[in-house]
Design brief:
The protein has 353 residues and is an alpha/beta fold. 43% of the residues lie in helices and 11% in strands. Helix 5 packs parallel to helix 6, helix 8 packs parallel to helix 10 and helix 10 packs parallel to helix 12.
Length: 353
């Protein structure tokens, strides 16, 4: 468990992947372009001494991910966000069944989210029901720029999408994580536009919409939408690495988010394995806004705010009692393997009823 200035900081990493972009799994040139674009993001922001080789990056095993996340990486838990890309990868890039395999080994450490694509019609609705039943999913990742035949994207505010959102509400899948913002070659940037979140959030107030990557580079659009939709949250994946390489820019982004959304609707995400949480968490925890930024935005990025961003806000969305969870984590296999039990203290749990 991460400690900062003598205080515990519970880290629930809201955006992680276990992908397979090996050459054997690539079925379309878009698959090679996609993983190389991811790798460019990785090398562009990761400190040189922490960079992976491209071959390591294509496909990593469970043991490495668990070590990177929890053994070395300061995270206490992670939310697995599926990304299928079936047009590019024979067995999919990062499917819920693959994520479920990892979570089955470490159920106290990983939350598995589902996924849907309204272009799959009735079969997709049935698949969503399967995901809810088999994996008890409480959230779903949507990738609106994914290709499907001749289609190069879909809208979250479409009639077809609303049918799926109704199904999510019915199944208790209350957290919708939408990739909105940065594009990845060869996907279409406009299909990742944040504009379609507005009507969806208004129409489904019982659901939470976590806009991953805070809509970058359309941060203003995102903030103006989130300001009027109380069920819209900002996911910091992709924005977080700027804390290391562009600290002033990161301070500007945090100033906008704290000004418009407030400290209760921002979630940390490493986007593992694009970036490892170890250096990323340290960078965000050390980040400060400049005096000019604090004066302009009228907000503070202090320890209490960072504790909310790092895990407390996500824990609320996923109904996790942090004190109870610390008791569970203290005795799990990961703590035993990496000697983490002492970090979670003793006798502080709320009784499990």
């Amino acid at each position: 468990m991460y400690q900062y200035e003598g205080e515990d900081v519970f880290v629930l990493d809201g955006h992680v992947h276990w992908w397979d972009a090996s050459k054997d799994n690539i079925s379309h040139e878009g698959g090679e372009q996609f993983i190389r674009c991811f790798y460019d993001y990785h090398t562009g922001f990761t400190p040189e001494e922490r960079q992976w080789s491209l071959e390591e990056y294509r496909k990593y095993d469970k043991e490495r991910m668990v070590r990177d996340m929890f053994g070395d990486g300061h995270a206490d838990m992670g939310i697995l966000q599926p990304t299928y890309l079936n047009e590019f990868y024979t067995e999919g890039f990062n499917t819920i069944d693959r994520c479920g395999e990892l979570a089955e080994d470490h159920p106290s450490r990983f939350i598995v989210n589902g996924r849907f694509d309204p272009r799959e019609g009735e079969a997709g609705l049935k698949e969503l029901e399967r995901q809810a039943e088999e994996f008890d999913v409480r959230g779903a990742k949507v990738y609106t720029a994914e290709w499907n035949g001749d289609s190069k994207g879909w809208r979250l505010d479409s009639e077809e999408s609303f049918e799926y959102l109704e199904k999510c509400a019915e199944l208790g899948i209350k957290n919708i994580h939408a990739h909105k913002g940065p594009t990845i070659r060869p996907l279409n940037r406009d299909a990742f536009d944040v504009a379609d979140v507005d009507d969806a959030a208004t129409s489904f107030p019982e659901l939470n919409f976590v806009v991953e990557h805070v809509g970058l580079p359309r941060l203003d659009d995102f903030c103006w939408i989130a300001a009027q939709e109380p069920n819209v949250y900002g996911g910091l994946a992709v924005a977080a690495p700027l804390a290391e390489s562009r600290p002033r820019k990161f301070g500007e982004i945090m100033g906008e988010l704290l000004f418009w959304l407030g400290e209760d609707r921002i979630l940390f995400g490493s986007d593992y394995a694009i970036w490892e949480p170890e250096w990323l968490i340290e960078a965000v925890m050390e980040a400060e806004m400049t005096p000019e930024q604090r004066e302009e935005y009228g907000v503070e990025l202090d320890l209490e705010v960072k504790k909310k961003i790092m895990g407390e806000n996500a824990a609320k969305l996923y109904d996790i009692d942090i004190e109870r969870q610390k008791e569970i984590l203290r005795d799990d296999g990961v703590s035993e393997e990496f000697g983490l039990a002492e970090q979670y203290g003793e006798g502080t749990a709320v009784a499990d009823d």
